[in-house]
Amino acid sequence: MYLRLEDIICQLASDKRQRGEDPVLNAEQYRATIWCEMVTRFGKTFRDAAELHQATLFLHDNGACVSVIFSAHEILSTNA
Questions:
Q1: Structure confidence at residue 45 as a pLDDT band (50, 70, 90)
Q2: Residues spanned by the domain of 61
Q3: Total Cβ atoms within 10 A of residue 65
Q4: C-beta of residue 13 within 8 angstroms of C-beta of residue 23
Q5: If DSSP states are collapsed to H, E and C, what string results for the chain?
Q6: CA distance 15 to 76
Q7: Shortest CA distance to 14 belongs to which of 66, 68, 58?
Q8: Is 80 within the bounds of a domain?
Q9: Separation between Cα atoms, residue 72 and residue 23, nearest integer Å
Q10: Assigned domain for 63 exists
């Protein structure tokens, strides 16, 4: 699931940049977008917001979540 999340994050950033937008999402936009994309692309998503939060933290801590800028305070420090 983590690799799928990373793929979605990279694609979102690329799509936003192609439209001339900054790749910035607030916490709610991030959760909703990831949730929708996971279901659309893979037919499943994370069990709950806490699991998505854990995956996001893992990717961020390992340098994989650098393509989409989001409010670290909102997403990374929130107990989902």
A1: very high
A2: 2-75
A3: 23
A4: yes
A5: CHHHHHHHHHHHHHHHHHCCCCCEECHHHHHHHHHHHHHHHHCCCCCCHHHHHHHHHHHHHCCCCCCCEECHHHHCCCCC
A6: 23
A7: 68
A8: no
A9: 14
A10: yes
Q: What's the number of domains the chain is made of?
A: 1
Point out which residues pair with 25 in neighbouring strands: 70
**Overall pTM > 0.70:** yes
Residue 34's CB: how many other CB atoms inside 10 A?
22
Q: Closest Cα partner for 68 from 30, 41, 40, 28?
A: 30
> Residue 36 domain-assigned?
yes
> Which residue do the tokens 């659309």 mark?
40
33 part of a folded domain: yes
Long-range contacts of 31-37 (CB under 8 A, 24+ apart): 31/80, 34/5, 34/8, 34/9, 37/8, 37/11, 37/12
Q: Which residue has the higher pLDDT, 35 or 78?
A: 35
Phi and psi based region of residue 68 (left: phi greater than 0; alpha: psi -120 to 50; beta: remaining): beta
Q: What is the pLDDT, as a whole number, of residue 63? A: 76
